[in-house]
Amino acid sequence: MLLARGRIVAALRAWFAEADFVEVDTPALQVSPGNELHLHAFAATPSAPDGTAAPRYLRTSPEFACKKLIAAGERRIVEFAHVFRDRERGPLHHPEFTLVEWYRAGEPYQTLMEDCVAVLRAAARAAGTRALTFRGRSADPFAAPERLSVAEAFARFAGIDLLATMPGGEPDTALFANAASAAGIGVADDDTWGDIFSRVLVARVEANLGIGRATILDGYPTALSALARPTSDPRLAERFELYACGVELANGFGELTDAAEQRRRLEAQMAERERIYGERYPIDEDFIAALSHMPQASGIALGLDRLVMLATGASRIDQVLWAPIEEQTE
Fold this sequence. Notes:
Layout: H1 2-18, E1 22-23, E2 29-30, E3 43-44, E4 56-58, H2 63-71, E5 76-84, E6 96-105, H3 110-127, E7 132-134, E8 137-140, E9 146-149, H4 150-158, H5 173-182, H6 193-205, E10 212-213, E11 215-218, E12 239-244, E13 247-254, H7 259-277, H8 285-291, E14 297-303, H9 304-312
Parallel strand pairs: 1-5, 8-10, 9-11
Antiparallel strand pairs: 2-4, 3-4, 5-6, 6-14, 7-8, 11-12, 12-13, 13-14
Helix pairs in contact: 1-3, 1-9, 2-8, 3-9, 4-6, 5-6, 7-8
C-alpha cells in the first residue's frame, strides 16, 4: 500500500505538471489556521531571539496561503500539503494528513470537476486497479461521475425538501428540524440549521454517494460555504464535493473574492465558534487584503490519503501512512 502511495503521488505530480501547474510549498505555521467553524487547530507559540512570543497555529489547510499566491499573479498552482487537525481520529481521519490542493485563476469551478475525473483515473492506473473500494462498496474510477445536486440528494435519500427550509433565502432551523423529525432523524433542541444539515448528510445521504461510480455533489447551501461565491440562486454556492464508495474525497469552490463579504462571513463563523467551543481563531488580515487583488478563480482540496486508501483497498488511513501517530490511550 505504501509503495502504491508513492506511485500515486508520482502520477499526480506528473499529471499536474503536464497540465501546466506550478507546484508550490507554503508554510505549515500560520497566523490563522483557517476559520472553518468545526475544524480544530493545533496551537504553537514560537519565540523570537529576544524571547518574545507570538501565537501561531499549524494550518488546517493551505488555502489562505495559496490564494495569496493567486492574488500575486500565479495562474495554476498545486500543493501537496501536510495539514493538521485536532480532535480527528478514526478509519478516515488522522491528526496529520496530506491534502492535494490546487487552484485555477480565471477558470470556472466546473473545470475542477474534470480535474477530479483525471485524478481518479491517474491514481487507479498508478495503483494497478480497475476499482476503488472501501468497506464492501466499490466505484469505477474510469466511469463518468454521477452529477447530483445537494437538494436532489436530500430529496432522494432523506425525503427532505432542502430548499423549502430556506424560505426567502434564509435558513430556517425550525422548518428544517420539523422536516428532519418527519424523516425519522433525531434533532436536539440546540441544533442549528447547519447541525441538522450535517446530521442528515451523514445519516442518510453520504453512504449512497459514489456507489458504482464517483458522485459529484454540487450546489451546497451558501450558509455552509463561507469561502465560496454564490450561484445565480443566492441560497446556493459554487461548491461541490467528490465522493467515491461513500467517502468524501474532495471539496471544491468557485472562490469568493469580495473582501468585505469574506470578512463578514469569517467573523460570523468565529462568533459561532466562540459560542459553541468558547474560542475563536484570528482572521488572517493579509489574506483579506489579498482578496482585493485576486482574480476570479476556482480551487479544490483532495484528501490524498483517502484516495490512496480507496485505490489500494485499505480499511484504515493508518495503513497508507508511513509513520502514523500512535493513538492516545488512558
